[in-house]
Amino acid sequence: ACFKRDLNCDATAKLKRSLVADVPVPAVIQGSMHDALHARASEPDAEDAFFVADLGEVRRQLVQWMELLPRVQPFFAVKCNPDPLVVKLLASMGTGFDCASKAEIQQVLREGVDPHNIIYAHPCKPASHLRFAQAAGVATMTFDNADELVKIRQLYPGAKAVLRILTDDSSSLCQLGLKFGAAANLTQSLLATAQQLGVDVVGVSFHVGSGCQSEAAFADAVLRARRVFDEAAALGLRLSLLDVGGGFPGRGDQSGLSFEAMATVLNAALAEHFPLQSHGHVRVIAEPGRYFVASAFSLAVNVIARRQVTNNSGPSFMYYVNDGVYGSFNCIMFDHQHPVPQVLTRAGHAVDKQSCLGPLRPSSVWGPTCDSIDCIVSASSLPELQIGDWLVFHGMGAYTICAASRFNGFKISDVVYVDSDSARA
Ligand code: PLP
């Protein structure tokens, strides 16, 4: 046993060494998002589109979470924005992480996160990633089908399995239930299969859909989870973990839905169906992505070309900018977003008040590639802009950079970091 333990220690030490990052950490400017946007756009020869990320905003979102959902430990969904400084900050503040692949697990481990604070939240895992999770000691993982249970039994018999159930995500922008989640009529037999295979099922997870537009979805999902806890109890299984997934809105979300309202509904549902004083305390975690990062990133783009078009309704303008749908604005396709442009600089001057910019013209905004699908805003009203002016899009932190491509040879926009938390300045 001793030899085996030494071997394991060696393997763990080797894994840790292989994870040590040799990447320089970017500088963080103390100051505001507003100042950083203007400063960078006014640099001589500034042309490339760029993000400004405000780490202070990420920190404030975490503080708000702890105030409004004190019972629920957040595990940041890395997929939403694997920005190295965001992950570093959240790791330093003690959040857990939801990882969906080997590379995401590696990134989080590099920040020194305890493997117990990672959930491998993908119900359909490649074998090699599962083997890596075992080597790294990331034991908690989701499943929603019997084949996955067999795979887990073979490759990671010591895993702590979490049954992901289907919920009503009909009011969400991204309906993940089309792909994942065990339907209510299948959960009991899946639990029984796990029992037969000897897989240790420790809890239930759900995801109400990303960009959830209804607080009621959480209340309904918690009730569904309660039923699965009861089914497990009938089989003699005592579950101890409830994972309420993601779906929480970012600050200033276009849906108008507030995190406060969602937290109120979720707290009430937890109190009703998983009361704290009941026997067998249930640990509650969540997998928020958008909530932490959406409002923390703004994207500035440069007008690289324009075209004036005249039709029956008069003149309009087509503006071409240097990030687009194949880049950061992939959120239009994949995340069903409707980014709203504001003028950042005009004729070299910073613009603070959108209302003082003169008459508005019918306008459209296009990305830099040769493809006509690369349209950011098809119909908008903007003041007349010139080549070289800058536009800014706020609320661009979720599902943007992470899925951007270099199609047509255009680069992925850089990130400038600020920390607006004056207490830390
Ligand atoms: N957890 C899982 C399993 C997901 O698939 C996602 C998003 O797709 C998230 C969490 C994060 O969701 P959100 O960004 O809506 O909080």
TrEMBL record:
A GO cellular component entry from the record: cytoplasm
Keywords: Lyase, Pyridoxal phosphate
CDD domains: PLPDE_III_ODC
Cofactor: pyridoxal 5'-phosphate
Positions carrying N6-(pyridoxal phosphate)lysine: K79
InterPro entries according to UniProt: Ala_racemase/Decarboxylase_C (IPR009006), De-COase2_CS (IPR022657), De-COase2_N (IPR022644), De-COase2_pyr-phos_BS (IPR022653), Orn/DAP/Arg_de-COase (IPR000183), Orn_de-COase (IPR002433), PLP-binding_barrel (IPR029066)
Quaternary context: Homodimer. Only the dimer is catalytically active, as the active sites are constructed of residues from both monomers.
Protein name: ornithine decarboxylase
Native source species: Coemansia brasiliensis
Gene name of the encoded protein: SPE1
